[in-house]
Amino acid sequence: MDIEKVRSYIKEYKKEFVKISTKEIYKWQAVKTFQENWNDSATDFYYMLNLSLSKTSNLLNSRNYFPILAILTYSKQKPETIRELFRDLYNEEDDLGDRINRFKKGIKLVNKELEPKLNNYQDHHAISVYLSLRYPDRYFIYKFELLNKFVN
């Protein structure tokens, strides 16, 4: 990409920053809250996860979409399993696709044991939020509708 084009984009972004930040600042507040509270060695994993995700409701809950409720339910009943799934998801030494697949497979097993008739809601969007909260400089939040609009 041409450096002048990049400078132009940055200039336009700065010009619109107040407008953008009032609409999107909640995402950075969610990242900050997560970063301040995440501790995969916490004695009470459920409490820590609940606190870490406490500012993500706009990112992870919407009409008929409840990944926070699902992951907290699982972590309350099977904290060590969920702790290990997150540790593996956040292990940057392994391939990202493999980590995502293992996380989804592990969640499916937990869901089958605890709530077999319910949706686990741990889809690519939820996983992208978990990754972007932990590593905001490396990952972004996946939104299918936005991606689809961009591609079209």
Explain what you see.
This protein is mainly alpha-helical. It contains nine helices and no strands.
Helices, strands, pairings?
Elements: H1 3-15, H2 17-37, H3 45-52, H4 57-60, H5 67-77, H6 79-89, H7 96-114, H8 124-134, H9 144-151
What brief labels describe this structure?
152 residues; mainly alpha; 9 helices
Brief write-up:
The chain has 152 residues and is mainly α.
Beta-strand percentage range: under 5%
What's the total count of β strands?
0
Could you describe the largest sheet, including whether it forms a barrel? none
Order of helices and strands: HHHHHHHHH
Structural class: mainly alpha
Shape: elongated
Mean pLDDT: 90
Radius of gyration: 17 Å
Q: Could you name the ranges where pLDDT drops below 50 across 5 or more consecutive residues? A: none
| Alpha plus pi helix count | 9
The portion of residues assigned to helices is: 55-70%
Distance between the termini: 21 Å
